[in-house]
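[Q] Does anyone have a clean structure-token version of this?
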Amino acid sequence: MLECLLIAAKGLDELLKLEIQQILGEARAIHMTPGQCRLEVSLEELYRLNLHTRIANRVLLVLVSGNVKNADDIYTLTQQVNWPEQFDVNSAFAVRFNGVNKEIRNTQFGGLKIKDAVVDQFTEQTGRRPDVSRQEPDVQIHGRLRREKLDICIDFSGTSLHVRGYREQTGDAPLKEQVAAAILMRSGWAQNTTECMLDPMCGSGTIAIEAALIATNTPPNLHRFHWGFEHFLGHDKAIWNKVKEQAIANICEPKAKIYAFDISTILLDMAKVNAQAAGVQDIIEFKQCDALQAQVKESTGYIVSNPPYGERLGEYVGLLPLYDGFGKQLKTHFANWHVSLLSSDPQLIKALKLRAHKRYALNNGKLECVLVNYILNDENLADFDVQGAMPADEFANRLMKNQKRLQKWLTRESIEAYRIYDADLPDYNFAIDVYGAWVIVQEYAPPKTLPEAVAKERLQQALLRIPAIMKCPTAQVVVKQRVKQSGSSQYQKQSSSGKRITVSEYGAKFYINPADYLDVGLFLDHRTTRQMFAQKAKGKHVLNLFCYTGSVSVHAALHGAKSVTSVDMSRTYINWAKDNFELNGITGTHVFEQADCLEWLSKRAQGHLPKYDAIFIDPPSFSNSKRMDSTWDVQRDHISLIKDALSCLQDGGFIYFSNNLRKFTLDNDAIAELGLKAINIGHKTLPEDFARNPKIHHCWEITKQ
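[A] Here you go.
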């Protein structure tokens, strides 16, 4: 008897164990650990497992096992195998190593010790050394380490078994073949193939093709062109051919229809090509059809599908109407059917408004997903809402009311970027900003009294209504999670689209990035503040600290400032500010400095450099950026900041000091000790679209007494 390991994706261990017992047709002692099953088999059974497994990624023949604590132990254990008896010296080989422990912390190092032992043994016994080929080796040796136990194996499969040999073309984010087979098994259909099966969003056809292979008892790996055991010296061609012949003889006709629909004719053509390569093109009925209109003649059956799911919040918004509509389609036309859907986004699954029967966690490649099974019984055919959720019509009415109220003001002021909703209803706790043709939804953390499921339900219902009310394509609705930022998370990208649009504000133009950053490039609550400062900056030398993308700098320059110096720690924002100057055709003696504003200001205060007539300061509430030597806290540190700014201020000049910390209190005593006068102008700087939120920011005009 031989010892073997079958390797599977995360979440498929139990399923693999059941499949092994079905393939071998008898009870067998199987030792299961995460990601693999271990058992003893004959050579014929080893071939059968390779040919018939729909779940395993690889079948490995274990040559030796033992405990290892260090590199020398790996070398010694590897030498226990007589390698010239396993493969010929003319066969190129590669080593794959998986796992680490306290002493062996690097998989490349572990693999190197196995390689050295193999090469040394060949050299000693034959006087020649085999070639090492990482790209297309004839033989793959696997080292699998778990704690202190190391298995050294020959890969009987070669390439991963998900490569069946039939899939020539795929769409984006293709479903792995063994995952497709797994969800067919988990759905219950693989055990009940007398019922029809429908995939209404079939993509390149993987689920339908795997279903056809199951329905006809066709070995999934029958069409593979290369096997790892072909260069193994223990390979027995006669036994292998016998196993294949028996498998081919057991292929049968399907007992029920298999349907594969997709709205894309391009993807459907791919699916047909793949089905032909698998030899099942006549078994599957393909049809170009929108999933929201899919119907078949059978009254019962199984729907098994991998509907599209986005990995970013922006994609979630675009897919939400699909899931909402698909849930309604299922309730209307597929009563008494079983439904199994794979998704990486639980919130999209919830948009179906169906009660789950079972859930399974599994991975599609590295992507963590959930497979959800439903039974469309009477309970699921009835409409239901998350307990505690309010009717979404109340939100829709408020959004339309706000839009109507602001319209005259927006037209009069020629404003293209504004806030239309800011948690007006406590039960819909998010803000909605409009930037040209784009809508940005900022989701606030829900109150502790509100269950998270209810908050998610309300956001979901709002997102289904926003595109219609705002007359905006779903692709231009972006959701962002507005949570407390700290450390480097303040500056991290949310996406990498690189897409920019332009919006106008009182004659100035600004680049906006709707998706890539938490903040899109223009703080709307400072719209009035920018105007007030810019009007006073005419003919003056201006300093804009923490300048962000330079919106204050642009307005000051357009209003006739003699010079504008813009300082920010972020190179991205400094370059963005330069782009905004270029967008507005601004030239002249304007300076852009990438630097820690606190450090830059402190050094400037100690020198004898020209001073500024007007200074704008809008610092973050808190920062501990890795570029700073210490933390920044606006409440704790604002006086030292103003003091340094004062030393750079020309006599007769002024400072606008602003921040967004809601509980901020200006230290008036310290201000007076510095000989300064601070006038609170916050109420004057509040724009029309932020009238409901007077604490959105604080602002003072500071001058010498």
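[Q] Thanks! Anything notable?
[A] The mean pLDDT is 91.
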